[in-house]
């Protein structure tokens, strides 16, 4: 046994040592670790602001879970909703939230600290900037409420990384995620995740529509299009584009119901099937994949992209839109950390860099590839691909 191990070790290629950049970073880390260096950096006028911002940033990470829970409580108790139409006296907020005065004041104090509310000197409470945004957007509130599941999955983060904690709530919610589970999605499962996806499109669709002009196309099909929130947004911006959607049968059925009140000539076609096993409808000069690839492992993504490619002709365009990984902006870094861990808890998929998606699209037979940023990298980046 010992001989086998040493033989296999001797076949492993020698790991080259760290290059100068890694050595420089390690030197910098040693300096930053020294309290006297940090004091000096805060004293020097040109590094003071940076150094303080770094300190605040780290503290925000260390305490971040408390802020998330205060936000959750502010939504869940109805505090923000109660302030939706103007200033409310603290005593009336007690009735609206069901909280005793002492507890309510503590929630208000914490919520004010993270700019959800402002308690005025007159004893009235109003929404502050972050609170106003959360209260105005049902999609953000849906995501905040949804995080209750994720908090439970993250209660043992080490177990999540070792793989010991694989029976997660997110895995149960996203019932198609993981190889071969897509056909077992039942209508109740589809409803649970599709309503969340539809609500959260309010944050995303404008970003995508501002970054790419879909008005240049005649027919668009949104593959993995959920219950149709994205194509509804496309219709609002580009009424002349004919729209259709492809998703698993119970989800496509929900989309059909959503559009059932529309006049027949404007009603999008909603196709039910598996984008892995069924041929996709042909003749669409634009195909979109919105928040679809990151749910799946590379082999599944490749199969899907090949299927999409097979339904397209030269001159047609595929627009891939989802949060992508990277280090070049705060939005990308947030997206990397959040979606990377989200899909880990889901048990399937990866938050990929734009370059990784380009490489997969190229392997699937696309030749003209462009990466296009959206305003908020946290929401999405686009990869535009043509055969
Ligand atoms: C994360 S959701 C995104 C939905 C929508 N594009 C959006 O951004 O709101 C992924 C979608 O892919 C669909 N999906 C997953 N596996 C599928 C498959 N094999 N065939 C068709 N659709 C599938 C799911 O039903 C779900 O609607």
Q: What are the main properties of this structure?
A:
alpha/beta; Arc Repressor Mutant, subunit A; three-stranded antiparallel sheet; 2 domains; seven-stranded mixed sheet; 387 residues; globular; 10 strands; Rossmann fold; disordered N terminus; binds S-adenosylmethionine; 54% helix
Structure commentary:
This protein has 387 residues and is an alpha/beta fold. It has helices at residues 2-11, 20-32, 35-43, 45-62, 64-76, 79-82, 90-97, 101-113, 129-136, 138-153, 157-162, 169-173, 187-211, 229-237, 249-259, 298-310, 330-346, 354-363; strands at residues 88-89, 117-119, 124-127, 219-223, 242-247, 269-272, 286-290, 317-322, 368-373, 381-386. The protein folds into 2 domains: 64-136, Arc Repressor Mutant, subunit A; 164-386, Rossmann fold, CATH 3.40.50. α5 crosses α10 (138-153), α10 packs across α13 and α13 runs parallel beside α14. The radius of gyration is 25 Å and the shape is globular. Residues 1-8 have low confidence and may be disordered. The chain binds S-adenosylmethionine (SAM).
Please give the CATH class of the largest domain. Answer: Alpha Beta
CATH fold call of the largest domain? Rossmann fold
The domain tally reads 2
* Mean pLDDT rating: 93
CATH homologous superfamily descriptor of the largest domain: Vaccinia Virus protein VP39
Low-confidence stretches: 1-8
Strand arrangement, major sheet:
6-5-4-7-8-10-9
